[in-house]
């Protein structure tokens, strides 16, 4: 057994918690499992369940979590878990417990993704040492970036860019933003560009069109009806989510000077397939006036890996 190994890595979202183990330095991630968050009382309970299931003890752990990590105490925004990082480390007997924001972990994985892990949506060739931007709708809207330092090091950005104000371009978008603002007090990007956001958009369109709905459609159902071309309003809701994703991603690209590419992560976008190509996502990404030529050169990459890249990023968080 090498010092610090085997170690546990995790990708903790609002809906699912994914775990894996790494037995040796630079070794593959093994025993990848997904546990529903709602079925476990706490993160520690989920970890104990996983380790019992695979019959292994670990020395240390690194995880990304869908939440700000601002100190020792963590209370998840989109789930009921709350815990002390140090108390959990002691309870589980680990020598080290590195916890970072889930999109910080995902950002750390970007330089290590293979060509099989991504699909490109337009743009040119990425600068291999240029800043990278990361954004992805899932339960919420994660945003991060990765900045080059020296020859071979990268520094991830930890922030809450998903809560920037949602930009409206068309009169229809302005009406939706007003509806979201009245409902939530602030029309953030996450209120529209996420699973919950897709549900909000469908409800907003129904309200604006005077349609009385007997139920609130889930994000999965809105997507299903849109992709099957069964419901025009579901299709409009999905299109709004995608063009707003393009707008916010373009803003992020300009802010970071993301010549290394803009990566689209999260659990929703990879499932949309060719619908991405038919949407206005790429056009809205580039629609930045005088800076359109700059945006046109920046590639958009959809992260579509078989194993959650955030698990790999959590391992690199332990290495730092």
From TrEMBL:
Catalysed reaction per UniProt? D-glucose + ATP = D-glucose 6-phosphate + ADP + H(+)
InterPro entries cross-referenced by the UniProt entry: ATPase_NBD, Bacterial_glucokinase, Glucokinase
Checking SUPFAM superfamilies in the record gives:
Actin-like ATPase domain
GO cellular component assignments: cytosol
Residues where ATP binds: 10-15
Q: Does the keyword Cytoplasm apply?
A: yes
Compartments it resides in: Cytoplasm
Q: Which UniProt keywords apply?
A: ATP-binding, Cytoplasm, Glycolysis, Kinase, Nucleotide-binding, Transferase
Q: Does the keyword Repeat apply?
A: no
EC numbers listed for it are 2.7.1.2
Q: One Pfam match, by short name?
A: Glucokinase
| A single GO BP | glycolytic process
A GO molecular function assigned to this protein is: D-glucose binding
Family note: Belongs to the bacterial glucokinase family.
Q: Protein name, please?
A: Glucokinase
Q: Which organism is it from?
A: Ideonella livida
């Amino acid at each position: 057994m090498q010092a610090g190994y085997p170690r546990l890595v995790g990708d903790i979202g609002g809906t699912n918690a994914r775990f894996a183990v790494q037995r040796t330095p630079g070794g593959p991630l093994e025993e990848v499992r997904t546990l529903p968050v709602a079925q476990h009382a706490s993160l520690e309970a989920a970890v104990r369940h996983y380790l019992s299931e695979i019959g292994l003890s670990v020395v240390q752990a690194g995880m990304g979590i869908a939440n700000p990590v601002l100190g020792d105490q963590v209370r998840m925004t989109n789930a009921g878990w709350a815990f002390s990082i140090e108390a959990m480390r002691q309870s589980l007997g680990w020598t080290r417990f590195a916890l970072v924001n889930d999109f910080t972990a995902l950002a750390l994985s970007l330089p290590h993704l293979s060509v099989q892990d991504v699909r490109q949506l337009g743009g040119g060739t990425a600068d291999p040492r240029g800043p990278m931007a990361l954004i992805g709708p899932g339960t919420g809207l994660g945003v991060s970036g990765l900045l080059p330092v020296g020859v071979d090091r990268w520094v991830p950005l930890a922030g809450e860019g998903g809560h920037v104000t949602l930009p409206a371009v068309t009169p229809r978008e302005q009406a939706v933003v007003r509806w979201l603002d009245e409902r939530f007090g602030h029309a953030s990007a996450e209120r529209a560009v996420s699973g919950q956001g897709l549900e909000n958009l469908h409800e907003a369109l129904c309200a604006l069109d005077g349609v009385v709905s007997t139920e609130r459609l889930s994000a999965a159902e809105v997507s299903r009806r849109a992709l099957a071309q069964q419901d025009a309003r579901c299709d409009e809701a999905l299109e709004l989510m995608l063009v707003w994703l393009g707008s916010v991603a373009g803003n992020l690209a300009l802010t970071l000077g993301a010549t290394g590419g803009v990566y689209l992560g999260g659990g929703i976008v990879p499932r949309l397939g060719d619908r991405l190509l038919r949407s206005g996502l790429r056009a809205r990404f580039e629609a930045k006036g005088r800076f359109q030529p700059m945006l046109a050169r920046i590639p958009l990459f959809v992260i579509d890996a078989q194993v959650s890249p955030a698990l790999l990023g959590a391992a690199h968080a332990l290495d730092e």
